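[job 4471] stage=fold_predict status=RUNNING
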Amino acid sequence: MSATAPKELVRRFYSEMFRNLSLAEEFIGANYVDHNNEQGGRGVEVFRLHLEALRRTFPDFSVSIEDTIAEGDKVVTRITGRGTHTGLWMQIEPTGSVVEVKGINIDRVADGRIVEHWGEADTVAMLLQMGVDPFAGRKSRGTRSPN
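[job 4471] inference complete, writing structure tokens
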């Protein structure tokens, strides 16, 4: 595998996967682990269930790649996701809001497939776009007086 192969595979994954779930086996390895959901198990089905849930919530979800950086078998991808909130998400009823969420993902590639995934997304901004106060009902720790 060439040095550019992991980067190109991951770029294709983010460009194509959200439009065509049938490509899952082409991109995802048999022992795939999503480190954001390790209790969910391993393999293509873990990814497929995650993507199906995302598409139920945001059926028009799309991803734009902002930047990619590759080193060895790991690829870092900065993305922007967009979609309309028409399904239940985190116990939040559909709002009809169009949301844009920024995220950074790290994917590890082995044998021409993504085998590990780590990801972070700006869900606070996403909630605010939905009109949901992400801090409602939470107690403030307050600040200490300097004296």
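[job 4471] summary: The CA atoms of residues 127 and 136 lie 11 Å apart.
[job 4471] exit 0
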